[in-house]
Amino acid sequence: MYSFNNDYSEGAHPRLLEALVNANLEQNDGYGLDVHSQAAAASIKKLIRREDADIHFLVGGTQTNLVAIASLLRPFQAAVAASTGHINVHETGAIEGTGHKVLALPTPDGKLTPAIIDECLKAHTDEHMVQPKLVYISDSTEIGTVYKKADLEAIHHFCRQHDLYLYLDGARLGSALTCEENDLELSDIAQMTDAFYIGGTKNGALLGEALVILNPAMKADFRFMLKNRGAMLAKGFIAGIQFEELFRDGLFFEMASHENEMAKILRNGIRELGYSFYSDSPTNQLFPILPNGVIDKLEQEFLFSRQYVIDDTHTAVRLVTSWATKETEVHRFLETLKRLG
Amino acid sequence: MYSFNNDYSEGAHPRLLEALVNANLEQNDGYGLDVHSQAAAASIKKLIRREDADIHFLVGGTQTNLVAIASLLRPFQAAVAASTGHINVHETGAIEGTGHKVLALPTPDGKLTPAIIDECLKAHTDEHMVQPKLVYISDSTEIGTVYKKADLEAIHHFCRQHDLYLYLDGARLGSALTCEENDLELSDIAQMTDAFYIGGTKNGALLGEALVILNPAMKADFRFMLKNRGAMLAKGFIAGIQFEELFRDGLFFEMASHENEMAKILRNGIRELGYSFYSDSPTNQLFPILPNGVIDKLEQEFLFSRQYVIDDTHTAVRLVTSWATKETEVHRFLETLKRLG
Amino acid sequence: MYSFNNDYSEGAHPRLLEALVNANLEQNDGYGLDVHSQAAAASIKKLIRREDADIHFLVGGTQTNLVAIASLLRPFQAAVAASTGHINVHETGAIEGTGHKVLALPTPDGKLTPAIIDECLKAHTDEHMVQPKLVYISDSTEIGTVYKKADLEAIHHFCRQHDLYLYLDGARLGSALTCEENDLELSDIAQMTDAFYIGGTKNGALLGEALVILNPAMKADFRFMLKNRGAMLAKGFIAGIQFEELFRDGLFFEMASHENEMAKILRNGIRELGYSFYSDSPTNQLFPILPNGVIDKLEQEFLFSRQYVIDDTHTAVRLVTSWATKETEVHRFLETLKRLG
Amino acid sequence: MYSFNNDYSEGAHPRLLEALVNANLEQNDGYGLDVHSQAAAASIKKLIRREDADIHFLVGGTQTNLVAIASLLRPFQAAVAASTGHINVHETGAIEGTGHKVLALPTPDGKLTPAIIDECLKAHTDEHMVQPKLVYISDSTEIGTVYKKADLEAIHHFCRQHDLYLYLDGARLGSALTCEENDLELSDIAQMTDAFYIGGTKNGALLGEALVILNPAMKADFRFMLKNRGAMLAKGFIAGIQFEELFRDGLFFEMASHENEMAKILRNGIRELGYSFYSDSPTNQLFPILPNGVIDKLEQEFLFSRQYVIDDTHTAVRLVTSWATKETEVHRFLETLKRLG
Lengths: 341, 341, 341, 341
Known about the structure:
The structure is a homotetramer. Chain A has about 350 residues and is of the alpha/beta class. In chain A, about 40% of the residues lie in helices and about 20% in strands.
């Protein structure tokens, strides 16, 4: 069965594997101090136009989020997130495991706004409550939506006014930045956040997330933090080599564009068949609402997940495309859906 | 410069890379639920003769130690380790970061014994002190020594008598089990510990440690624990594929034997040149005591680390061999040392 | 100005102070091992008809909650609470500070029900999410409501069915158990929970909460847990002496009855003046909804807190009565309100 | 049996109880914001000549240590303590419970020195080890010794040079500052530390430790920290009233002088009987080394603890005097010892 389950079912783009094979017998320094990690960091710094950034390569999204957030907050401070946010729902309490509350705020579309955050600040009036201190957003969000430049600017200014950190989870930043609706660049994000990460795992790497730290206070001693949480890879060059290749000549964005292109075909096809969507996602995660009977049959030929129960007879499923998604399978999915409808 | 700095300077054994390349476009289940991880686990269970074991693949040693230990201990319980133990010295407080004290006990040779542990138990008399509950050992130890079967049996029985968990850090278990002094088998360890891990990172894998859980109470809900600490790899099959290959036909032990063989040539050669050693290591880490002047010159041709200051004019350095160590470089090191002596 | 701010503005009932004075020059064992603590525990065990209970005296509510909950949960497990619950809102992230998420569930009246908890369980499907494991309720609740016997039985059975711990925060248990609406006895609570505490601080003691542990697994080594969190009082007899007196002949319930009586006069008086209430509280916390202009003037003569904004011109204030509340002041408050209305 | 077990066997100095009784029916603000806590803080600030200090009243020593230290350290940072230090041995891992390693350094007399700390710093070379960041000392120490002014100055300068925090545990600061060997004043300590606490529990209060914060960074939001750890007393005025009385006219020092005076009689008497001491303590804890046979008989008339096994036939016991110790009992102890010797 062909899988639209997620964007991490396959290994890595062949060029990344080739780079690993080519460097395999080199003797590299350990723990991320190797030349490949340095070269990858240099490429990213150039791309985001922040030579002052510190860049660390970690292994996965939950790990990156917990290390970054725990490095910033004092014990009584909390992270603010959309109630659908990954740190709130899908990290098995990893942030709380570092001692910090996640303040979960309902949103219409998975995106925080200054007004939503402000309401949270106003409700936290004194030392009997946690102190909201870090705003966590992700682009794209858990339900596939993206932040426009104006959205991010508004949050950025609000955070500066209220002395809040702004942290962006970029597990699917590739798809966000290359989707049609997007008007953000990496360099904008680097101007407006204290830290963010560029996701490799969900964009064609074997593994690896590039954490970009802009806030000088967060930079200090960050390698201690990595080691303290078991997040410092002995063979750090494994991630370094892949990110070097991802950002050598735009491969990262090429792969992201492919997954968006595949998602676009799916989205348009499903819409033409008369189905609506749970969220208005322009990225590589789609949430069509389908009759349960149709889903039962689709599941005999394709892998994907049931996400949200809509009513007794309808469910929003999640379809995810990746750098490796085959266009033929996308068309086969649409044909199957048409046939079942 | 050729490096004897550690056993994780190179990538992976070519067969492991080949396996990754071959499986690259497969669609695998995420989070360690794939067929390769299952096959690797099955091989290991057979090898250790414990079909009831639970096996999880993690990314690195510090991560594996902290997840395993935190899963076992209640808040007021402590891990007992040799004062030279990795969790005590070289993990940046990762165990304490999970809330648990490490009780560090001096040892003559990096190895715990029932007598040493018993002294610690006797000093912890009541609820005003932590409760020693888990014994942490590593094989080989931080200074290259190994546990004999009788050593491990003695600790095992002591732990059962005193209701202590026994956990073995096998970051360099390959080298330990294939060294000349060894009389332990993997299956012995699986009979005598509550959990242990088989290190891949330091034995020819790109990354990966196979955590073997024998204690039924520890098995329960362990995947929650993994995720809670950011230790669940999205593309878990990356580790699974490598361990499948490592244990398909003995490659794991072949590589370990090679590193021991290289260490043996080094050890004998250095000894013949009249130098003594900081510890009596039969494994792939050697700690020869050299005059500082000789070290200065060696450092112009080889990479290795200065480990322990012996006196004003002598230092114990650390030389580490790996699956990839070239015999020609071993001989060149010895010739250089001879020339400098 | 007379204060209806809370039920911990005054010191202790004179009989408690007298008992402290009388025992002052005794030499007592430290850390709660003294004869007074034992006598107090014996009285409580008899009252709750559970000779097997373990009873510990702690200093305050937040401390008691965090020690109790942290002693029960494994790292990836979460507490379930009403979104208005004290541990969710008013403990500055103390539970999260021990590493555990609080799953906050909206309720109509501050009370959890099996249906509400069940929805939470159903939403937590796998190891990518925390594992709900402990149900936290308080009686009376944060908004003054109480659990009926049938309510508690329903939750108790649900928890047993789903292998959840049930923990009851009794900061204001005195008021709850002596209010007119109540049909629960202490012995019922002791049959239906894994642990609960009887609040002294808010019921006439200088300080002190009696934590009653029924679950055998939680009893084990609990004194280590106390000490580990800084919750073991050196002069534990200070709390012991007070609880001995509180439960010698019903003083605890007498004081609670007084505060309920004072609250009843207030409640009826306010209602007669035509005002409604934010919640239907039969206990010593009342939340009348008053016009802001009236509140401004009341604040010139009485201390109390503004709690919930109802609309642009109305606010629900909080009035709390205590063991020490003077009936004359209650009447003066009502007269003042009448005059201002 | 008369007890020399500790200095917290009795209640409080009668003047403190009287003050509590006198203020009992006042309505005071909660959580330490009352006028008594403010007056007590004002007295202390005047005494230490630091109007800029922030002063908080906590309930016990372990609690105070863990809140203070956790408020200062980042996750990968460690506290440095004498291996005999209270936080290392007698707090059941409370500091590790907040996530921080305690680096335990052997000392000849329970006192840290710049040389001892420096050795620790030099051994911690990089991010693979914790970062020593806070120096924990206590005055008097666990074995009764005291810091001279020159000792403290040396540590103070060392800490400033190396960017370390200096924190002083003053559980028995009264006894230290009033002993004959002492040449420190409270105001010296306030000039040389980042924070310290003045112990009330072990110096005649029912409970209470006055935490004095000098470091501006530590002051910020400290009340959040208190609440987050369950260390904010609802009836904070209980501690405030007592400290107000303790520092109204020197009662704190009077009581400490009494306990030192009683200890002096004991010390001289024991010495005259030909016994030696485990440590050279000028304060209220004495550690005479006695034959086990003598101890067996003494235990039939007095309570005290066996502390350190010296050899097969001798043990160092611990005798502690307090504000309430009766001189007649001191003499009776000496006579009994004489008779048994």
